[in-house]
Amino acid sequence: MITSVNNDEVKEVAKLFTSKGRKEKNMFVVEGPHLVLEAKKCGILLKTYTTTDKYEGTLVSEVVMKKMCNTITPTTVIGVCKMFENKRSEGHILALDRVQDPGNMGSLMRSAVSFGFNTIILNEGCVDIYNDKVIRSSQGAIFRLSFIKANIVEYLSHLQDYQIFSTNVNLGNDVTKVEKGPKMVLILGNEGQGVSEEINKMNYQNLYIPIKKMESLNVSVAGGILMYELTRSK
Amino acid sequence: MITSVNNDEVKEVAKLFTSKGRKEKNMFVVEGPHLVLEAKKCGILLKTYTTTDKYEGTLVSEVVMKKMCNTITPTTVIGVCKMFENKRSEGHILALDRVQDPGNMGSLMRSAVSFGFNTIILNEGCVDIYNDKVIRSSQGAIFRLSFIKANIVEYLSHLQDYQIFSTNVNLGNDVTKVEKGPKMVLILGNEGQGVSEEINKMNYQNLYIPIKKMESLNVSVAGGILMYELTRSK
User: Fold this and answer.
1) Helices (H) and strands (E) in chain B — how many of each?
2) Burial of B124 by CB count in 10 Å (0-12 exposed, 13-18 middle, 19+ buried)?
3) B28 and A CB contact within 8 Å
4) What is the largest CA-CA distance in chain A?
5) Residue of B41, B113, B225 to mutate for A, most A C-beta atoms under 10 A
6) What number of other Cβ atoms are within 10 A of residue B140's Cβ?
7) Other CB atoms closer than 10 Å to residue B8's CB: what's the count?
8) What order do you get walking across the sheet with B77-82 strand by strand?
9) B174 to chain A, minimum CA–CA distance in Å?
10) Which terminus of chain B, N or C, has less C-beta within 10 A?
């Protein structure tokens, strides 16, 4: 049982709280029995630490667990995981351009899985998907998706047979009225600025959601509605 | 110009950061030129404080502004507003049962305005709508809504001519297939627990969104999709 917060393993795990630490080690931490189990099923769980003999793993004291957890109320079990591979899955694709809020990122993952957008392309400006808030708000969806870090325009230029939709609140086609295909890409932009000029210039088909009085919806809500509408059976 | 953080007015404004302080004074604070303007249009702006002569209002030093702002990067203008009245508006109604995350509450307000759900019923367990994070994430929608604090079941029992929909991920009707009426109420529940037993017992018509693999969506995403679908033209 580990009881010292100065233990080397404990210090290594604590380093995984920062984006830099995670990138160096190619590892991240999940907290709580539900997420540890999901990580195990997904085949990426490397090591488990727990304060109770209810779970398998290295026993640690509560003080040590507090040091290894990023939440105010520490959990009883955490898992150290290896990062996902950079590959594409079957199904539709969601491309995120500088989505920065961890809650939005997590919610978008949840919706992406729910509507069959099994791959997410993330560009440079996106929040780190291994951020603990992203993982928590994804409610396990992060384990059921493929992620690709790339320049969106560049990546999409090599894709074939996909119908590409971008979003623009001013210059778009009403989403309820567009023809939908069997393989689709949906591009969503930054919370404040929408999609970048580089993407706008590409003349992808732009979509908008018909709304009243407000200029726009929250990006995770807009993304949810668009994925719902694009995959909706008539 | 106010330059002392010990000034009585400054201390009074700082009290409005807490839910208790806001309730005692029946006032709340909005930050930034956009929200101050919206509050003014809405007729609830009582007083303005600013660090620049670009805006009307009492001049204050940057140190004082920092004391009166709840953000890390203080704005140049804040407004003290009186709370909204407890009345119902025309249009559909959104009823929120213990929605606790400020980001979700703000996003739901944005979607509610966008889809014509102009009144929001909030029960005891909901986050304080005058919380600064709620106001920021509502993007001004808070000024275009009517709010009623009430027990949901009790309030709805006095309503006539409204079609009432509740939400239940296990026992519901596919939202794409239900008959929609001209006046609707949509009930959404707590982030972790969904709607309460008290509401479930009422036998309102339950809705669900057909999704794959995940158990549920984030409540603000689900609410957005449901409001979109219920008011969608065919």
Assistant:
1) 9, 11
2) exposed
3) no
4) 62
5) B225
6) 22
7) 9
8) B27-31, B77-82, B45-50, B58-59
9) 12
10) C
Chain center to CA of B156: 19
Mutate to test the interface with B, among A221, A230, A231 (most CBs of B within 10 A): A221
Task: Give contacts of B223 with chain A, Cβ < 8 Å.
Answer: 221
Nearest alpha-carbon partner for B199 in B145, B147, B155, B140: B155
> Running DSSP on this structure, what letter comes out for residue A84?
P
Report yes or no: B42 at the A interface, CB cutoff 8 Å.
Answer: no
Reading the block at residue A199, the tokens are 């993407």
**Residue A144 structure tokens:** 């059921």
pLDDT tens track for B132-141: 999 999 999 9
Show the tokens assigned to B37: 């303007």
User: Can you tell me the ipTM of this complex?
Assistant: 0.91
pLDDT of residue B234: 65
A61 in contact with B at a CB cutoff of 8 Å? no
Q: How far apart are CA B89 and CA A19, in angstroms?
A: 47
What is the tens place of the pLDDT at every residue in A87-108? 889 999 999 999 999 999 999 9
* pLDDT tens-digit readout, B108-123: 999 999 999 999 999 9
Task: Determine whether the interchain pair B217/A224 forms a contact, defined as Cβ–Cβ distance below 8 Å.
Answer: yes
Q: Would you tell me how many other CB atoms lie within 10 Å of the CB of residue B162?
A: 14
Whether B221 contacts chain A with CB within 8 A: yes
The pairing of beta strand A27-31 with beta strand A77-82: antiparallel
Please state, in angstroms and rounded to a whole number, the distance separating the CA atoms of residues B170 and A57. 34
Alpha helices in A119-181 (DSSP H): 132-138, 152-157
Q: Which of B115, B220, B223 sits opposite A211 (nearest CB)?
A: B115
End-to-end CA distance of chain B: 58
Q: Are A164 and A185 in contact (CB under 8 A)?
A: yes
Considering only alpha carbons, which residue of chain B is nearest residue A218? B107
Does B220 lie at the interface with A, CB-CB under 8 angstroms?
Answer: yes
Amino acid in position B83: M
Residues B218, A114: C-beta atoms closer than 8 Å: no
Is the CB of A176 inside 8 Å of chain B's CB atoms? yes
Q: What is the C-alpha to C-alpha distance for residues B85 and B12, in angstroms, rounded to an integer?
A: 22
Q: Which pLDDT tens digit goes with each residue over B169-223?
A: 888 899 999 999 999 999 999 999 999 999 999 999 999 999 999 999 999 999 9
Cβ separation A144–B213 shorter than 8 A: yes
- B116 vs A contacts (CB less than 8 Å): 212
Contact B147, B123 (CB under 8 A): no
